[in-house]
Structure formats: C-alpha cells, structure tokens
Amino acid sequence: MSAFQMNLVPLQEPLGFIKVLEWIAAIFSFATCGGFKGKTEILVSCNGTKNETVTATFGYPFRLNQASFQSPSSVCGVDWKRHVLIGDYSSSAQFYVTFAVFVFLYCIATLLLYVGYTNLYRDSRKLPMTDFVVTVVATFLWLVSTSAWAKALTDIKVATGPRIVQELLPCKQSPTACHFGSVTSMGSLNVSVIFGFLNMILWGGNAWFVYKETSLHSPSNTSGSHGQGGAAPPPGI
Length: 237
What we know:
By secondary structure, the chain is α+β, with helices and mostly antiparallel strands. It has helices spanning 3-12, 14-34, 90-116, 118-123, 126-159, 164-167, 187-211, 221-229; strands at 37-46, 52-59, 69-70, 176-183. The protein contains eight helices and four strands. A hairpin with a 5-residue loop joins strand 1 and strand 2. Keywords: Glycoprotein, Membrane, Transmembrane, Transmembrane helix.
C-alpha cells in the first residue's frame, strides 16, 4: 500500500467520511443563505391610471427596514424611497451563516488532523476528548441556529408577501390603489433550513464515532498492557 493510499484510510472510516459530509453540508448551509438576493413588487395606480411597478430589493443579512422601494418615476406623487419594508432579521441570519462558516473551517482542520496526523490523534487523550466536546456543542448550536433562522425565514416571507400592501402608508391613502405583484422565490432559503437540520443530524450521529475514540469509551493503553502482560496467579491464591 502506497503512502498516499495510507493517508486516505481515515477518510474511508466513519469518523473521516462523516466529517467530509459535514464539511459539504456546511458549505451548502452558508452558501444558500448568505448568497440570496430577491425583490418584492407591488402595482400602484392613481384614479384608474395604468399600473406602475414599485420594487423593494432585499437580501442577506435581511435588514428589511433598510430596503427602500424604488420606482421609475414619482408614482402618484409619492417619494417611494422614503418607504421601506418592515423587520430586521439580521441577527438570526448572521448567527446561522457565521456558525456555518466556523463549522466549515473546523471540518477542514479536523480532516487535516485525521489524514496527516492519525496516530497523534489516536494516541492522544486530549485531542479526541476535545473533538467530542466540540461535536456535542456543535450539534446543539446547529439546532439553535437553524430553529432561529427557520422562524426568521417565516417572518421574512410574511413581511415581503401580500401583507406589505396593508402596511404601506401611501397604499392606505386615496386615490392611491396598491396591489401585490410578486416576490422572488425563496427556495434556496428553504434549502438552507433543510441543510441546517441535516447538519444537526450529521453532527449528532458523528458524536458516537468521536466518543469511541475518547478515553471514556476506550481503555488506556497502560491498563491494556498490564492486563495482557501479567502472569496468571497460581490457583488457590
């Protein structure tokens, strides 16, 4: 077996293989959320005139209260730039994306450790235990961050949907008539939530394999050597 093939052996074991899956899932998590850009449109008319489109563009980190409306002209004499969407969901979105990026970097570091320093990892008591603690904490944080982001996404869909017609002040004043037009599909954001919970499952399952590498599960080498090297006592003693 070549040296290259020996280095790839840890990746063929559950510990390394699942870490690769965690690395890939983390990429999809922050990419599908952090790279999103969309817009919502309403149709505005005055006294039965032709409908004009007024658009508000939004995206990560979803500070909707900074997303102002834009129109090609002063529709109905309203300065639409002074009106914005409602809500600020940046805390949940940034927490989710930032944590996913940290997980991505941690997976790279641990993969390098598994592949390049396998013996060091397995002969050490501290490294597997540290890896186990990080894995358990990461599982919990995936649950928290994904749940918070899922709730924020639900609110974002409401804030950029037909409800905005009821919230905009110009739409409540005659002779302005507003109708909801469209909003960008948020399928990629739905995918980010799915990958968030998938990450939680991966990290939770991987906790068992990491636990098996710790001293809590495996007896120490010293104890093992004593058990095997000692001679059996004579019967009757």
